TrEMBL record:
EC number: 1.1.2.4
Domain of life: Bacteria
Organism of provenance: Cupriavidus taiwanensis (strain DSM 17343 / BCRC 17206 / CCUG 44338 / CIP 107171 / LMG 19424 / R1) (Ralstonia taiwanensis (strain LMG 19424))
Cofactor entry: FAD
GO molecular-function terms, A-Z: D-lactate dehydrogenase (cytochrome) activity; FAD binding
One Pfam family here: FAD_binding_4
Cross-referenced InterPro entries: FAD-bd_oxidored_4_C, FAD-bd_PCMH, FAD-bd_PCMH-like_sf, FAD-bd_PCMH_sub1, FAD-bd_PCMH_sub2, FAD-linked_Oxase-like_C, FAD-oxidored/transferase_4, Oxid_FAD_bind_N
Name of the top EC class for this enzyme: oxidoreductase
GO-annotated biological processes: respiratory electron transport chain
Protein name stated in the entry: FAD-dependent OXIDOREDUCTASE PROTEIN similar to D-lactate dehydrogenase
Residue span, FAD-binding PCMH-type domain: 42-223
Length: 481
């Protein structure tokens, strides 16, 4: 016999008693922004949305919801692409939005750590580090609105993973409120701590299904003294991979970003931006944005970049290159790269396949998957771009200009995503390299995860959230599906 859920009015009053009336939102109009994802694809309903100001308040909210068996959806900047941060349409959930917990609590420049609340935006975190002449290296296009808690919950990657890793590699300590309200805190800034299971890593990438991240201790890096950026035309993806090898051989750790851009991706974003010309004179099928950063002076780093490009030219790996002659040039090159995502959203009809394969197989994968997708959807625009350097591309077939988005998107799961994910899986790759699972790819896990992997994930979920109250329906398919 399932216990009766409290009425929305009872829940609202209980939440108001914990966080205060001003930190509660109820009713469709006031909750709209919190129950719909930023692209308007995933829409749900909530009993109440609460914006707690402290870990203590989060704990009390979860204690109450746990006692009343009320499901809870944790939410940061609500920039999830997979529907992971909004409630379902049952109208039973309480959304806990962390935006008011937005303080940088401490920066220790000697220890190279920064302690933040979960609601600090990525851009605020990066600015706080910069003010102390340090770098917090996570770099993703949504940095103005995404929050550190959500970056951790989705193990966010972005354009500097090649050099600095994902959020999993950038976190040293966490504070998490568990489904029953207990507070797990390991807000320590130690690079070495071998005292039992590394519990914090359970919550990184769990998409809010095991606990609500309320604070973190993050690694800081030395600020690079110089950077060198080039927009390079290459004959094909295989040449891009070979050029990456040359870049690593000649500059070692200095390779910070290596972003593939297909011609349809470039055409799309230049059309969207409207006021920026291609950095290259000629039109090319494939390009890469290459960024080196280092502690050496700009002159020697640029010389290294030129050495890489000359070597590339001599081996037929480079067809043309525009080297940023100023910060403004570099910013323009990066703006072209970063705006591809919004250009897709504005155009509509983007089938998103966020896949990764071993770097040794990525060129063949891109070529073969492109050919096979075009057999299925001959006029699709092959918007293929992103983090080739770490084996991840956003393989996003886009609707033909003359086809309405709604028609084109009927092909999303079958046949397009099933084909592309199946090919990535066959390469021992990932069907979601960066964006996580949410609800969008939840049921795919039964196809692409082994039975043992699924059983282990269910066992972890059962151990930490036996009542399945935290972010229900996200990430894990129902057992036995
Ligand atoms: C990026 C953004 C999401 C997408 O631009 O690196 O992660 O595929 C993507 O539009
Ligand atoms: Zn990406």
């Amino acid at each position: 016999m399932t216990a009766e859920l409290p009425t929305p009015d009872t829940t609202l009053r209980a939440m108001q008693a914990i966080v205060g009336a001003n930190a509660c939102r109820s009713g469709d109009a006031d909750t709209q922004a919190y129950v719909t994802d930023y692209r308007g694809i995933y829409r749900g309903q909530a009993q109440v949305v609460v914006l707690p100001a402290s870990t203590e308040e989060v704990s009390r909210v979860l204690q109450w919801c746990h006692a009343q068996r009320v499901p809870v959806v944790p939410q940061g900047g609500n920039t999830s692409l997979m529907g992971g941060a909004v409630p379902d349409d049952s109208g039973t959930a309480v959304v806990v939005n962390l935006s008011r917990m937005n303080r940088v609590l401490a920066i220790d420049p000697v220890n190279d750590t920064m302690t933040v609340q979960a609601g600090v935006t990525l851009s605020a975190a990066r600015s706080a580090a910069e003010a102390e002449q340090r770098l917090f290296p996570l770099r993703i296009g949504s940095e103005g609105s995404c929050q550190i808690g959500g970056n951790l919950s989705t193990n966010a990657g972005g354009t500097a993973v090649l050099r600095y890793g994902n959020m999993r590699d950038l976190v040293l300590g966490l504070e998490v409120v568990l489904p029953d309200g207990r507070i797990y805190s390991s807000l320590r800034g130690l690079r070495k701590d071998n005292t039992g299971y590394d519990l914090k890593q359970l919550f990184v990438g769990a998409e809010g299904t095991l606990g609500i991240i309320t604070g973190a201790v993050l690694k800081l890096m030395p600020q690079p003294r110089s950077s060198a950026v080039a927009f390079v035309a290459v004959p094909d993806p295989a040449a891009a991979v070979a050029l990456l090898g040359e870049a690593k051989r000649l500059s070692g750790q200095a390779v910070t970003a290596f972003e593939l851009i297909s011609r349809p991706a470039l055409d799309l974003v230049l059309e969207y931006l409207g006021n920026i010309a291609s950095p290259l004179q000629e039109r090319h099928d494939w390009m890469v944005l290459v960024e080196l950063t280092s502690g050496t002076d700009a002159e020697s780093l640029n010389a290294t970049l030129m050495e890489i490009l000359e070597s590339g030219f001599s081996q037929g790996l480079v067809l043309d290159a525009a080297v940023a002659a100023s910060l403004s040039d570099a910013q323009t090159f990066w703006r072209i790269r970063e705006e591809i995502s919004d250009a897709q959203t504005r155009t509509g009809g983007s089938i998103k396949c966020d896949v990764s394969v071993p770097l040794s197989r990525i060129a063949a994968f891109v070529e073969e998957a492109s050919a096979r997708v075009l057999e299925l959807v001959p006029d699709a625009r092959m918007v293929i771009y992103g983090h080739m350097g770490d084996g991840n591309v956003h393989f996003n077939p886009l609707r033909p200009k003359d086809q309405p988005a709604r028609d084109f998107l009927t092909q999303w799961y079958e046949p397009v995503s099933a084909l592309v994910d199946g090919m990535a899986h066959a390469e021992n790759g990932s069907i979601s390299a960066e964006h996580g699972i949410g609800v969008a790819k939840r049921d795919d896990l039964t196809r692409y995860k082994s039975q043992v992997e699924l059983e282990l994930m269910w066992q972890v979920k059962q151990a930490l959230d036996p009542l399945n109250l935290l972010n229900p329906g996200k990430v894990l398919p129902a057992p036995g599906r």
